[in-house]
TrEMBL record:
InterPro entries: CobU/CobP, P-loop_NTPase. It comes from hydrothermal vent metagenome. GO terms for biological process: cobalamin biosynthetic process. The lineage of its organism: unclassified sequences, metagenomes, ecological metagenomes. GO terms for molecular function: adenosylcobinamide kinase activity; nucleotide binding. This is Adenosylcobinamide-phosphate guanylyltransferase. Transmembrane segments: none annotated.
């Protein structure tokens, strides 16, 4: 499970942008190992893979 950190305003600070980028890369790599991937928002799930 990962938090959605990429749905808002892009922060000015390099450290914050780096965190968002690294979190996205981690999520992509983890999804390659999974048979199913879901996005859940407001209690509603969408199957991505």
């Amino acid at each position: 499970m990962l938090n959605d950190v990429n749905s808002g305003v892009i922060p000015m600070e390099n450290q914050s942008r780096s965190f968002i980028d690294r979190t996205g890369v981690i999520g992509q790599k983890l999804s390659l190992l999974c048979n199913e991937v879901y996005e859940v928002k407001l209690g509603l799930s969408i199957k991505l893979k």
